[in-house]
Amino acid sequence: MHEMALCEGIVEIIENEARKGAFAKVKTVWLEIGALSHVAPEALHFCFEAVTANTIAKGAALEIIEQKGSAWCLACSRSVEIAQRYQPCPACGSHQLQVTGGEDMRVKELEVE
């Protein structure tokens, strides 16, 4: 389950920001997660609660902002929205798509005290 490692990375980011910003408690963490990132939001919620148990983010809410996947179709020269890899272009049916967005996961915002 790579979500556990992702949550450990999120906690590391939070702790680094706490040192810079001198805050002692995190109330909410907003994450942007791309549709093509291979991250399961349900598993992330579960792991987040476990990993933050003894940190300044204990009890913090985890809010997930889902980002759509996008690709450039080499056949019809259009930017298209896709829900998963290897699906055909919704405009022309070609499978010649180059992913251009929706692969990332990032901490967007922290609500702190």
UniProtKB/TrEMBL annotation:
Chain positions recorded as Ni(2+) binding sites: 2
Binding site for Zn(2+): 73, 76, 89, 92
Pfam families documented for this protein: HypA
Keywords: Metal-binding, Nickel, Zinc
InterPro entries the record matches: Hydgase_Ni_incorp_HypA/HybF_CS, HypA/HybF
Highest taxon in the source lineage: Bacteria
Transmembrane segments annotated in the record for this chain: none
Annotated family: Belongs to the HypA/HybF family.
Function as written in the Swiss-Prot or TrEMBL entry: Involved in the maturation of [NiFe] hydrogenases. Required for nickel insertion into the metal center of the hydrogenase.
Identification of the protein by name: Hydrogenase maturation factor HypA
UniProt organism field: Bradyrhizobium aeschynomenes
Name of the gene: hypA
